[in-house]
Amino acid sequence: MSLHPLDGKQFRARLVLLRNAKGLKQEQLSERIGRAYNYISRVETGRVKTVPFDVLAKLALALDVTIDDLLFIDGLAESADDIKFRIKTLLETSDVKKLRKFYRLLLVIVEE
């Protein structure tokens, strides 16, 4: 399987979704990984441009996922919930032009 890395916007969206799925507030996740209370807020809003590997490892542990789940589009297991998550992340990070293409493709698939 070939892994495709998430871009910064997709990574931030994935982090938000994984954190919310665990029922954690930004401050709680920051505390779990041993960072300042506003660290996750800064990551999720793009003010932190590069997340160090040791922090990625702590995030994965705190969110009960793998580092691949955090960094790669294909990193998540293929359960229905994971597929829905991947679709949601893709939709949330797409521009209007791509959304129109997705919509047309979905119409074709649904009509089959």
From TrEMBL:
Question: Which PROSITE patterns does the UniProt entry name for this protein?
Answer: HTH_CROC1 (PS50943)
Q: Which GO terms describe its molecular function?
A: DNA binding
The record ties this protein, via CDD domains, to:
HTH_XRE
> HTH cro/C1-type domain: from which residue to which, for each copy?
15-70
Span of the secretion signal?
A: none
Show the InterPro entries listed in the entry.
Cro/C1-type_HTH, Lambda_DNA-bd_dom_sf
| Protein's name in the database | Helix-turn-helix domain-containing protein
Q: Which organism is it from?
A: Tunturiibacter empetritectus
